[in-house]
Amino acid sequence: xxxxxxxxxxxxxxxxxxxxxxxxxxxxxxxxxxxxxxxxxxxxxxxxxxxxxxxxxxxxxxxxxxxxxxxxxxxxxxxxxxxxxxxxxxxxxxxxxxxxxxxxxxxxxxxxxxxxxxxxxxxxxxxxxxx
Length: 131
Prior knowledge:
This protein is of the alpha/beta class. It has 3 helices and 5 strands, in the order αβββαβαβ. Strand 4 (about 95-100), helix 3 (about 105-120) and strand 5 (about 120-125) form a beta-alpha-beta unit. The chain is rod-shaped and about 110 Å long.
């Protein structure tokens, strides 16, 4: 009498499904690691010891009440670009120093940055130094 069953279980372990899972995880981690921002690196910048005077610069000051000043002269927001271009003149080597109050709306600072970019001018965003 032959009592052996027809279905035999193979004792070998099949690794093909395991490799599929490992490759899917590898692809997932590779994609998510590229989404990490590059600006997340924390560095300590050196402090400047002295002050340099740049005679070829134009200071654009923005007050907390959204008033624009070019070298201590009050300018309306609508004529800001024409006044900056007039002050710069032919010399495109002049630098725009943007001095904004800490409570200035972001759109006002961006307006000056857009004007400088449009006219291909160098710009510096002035900040308060120290701790």
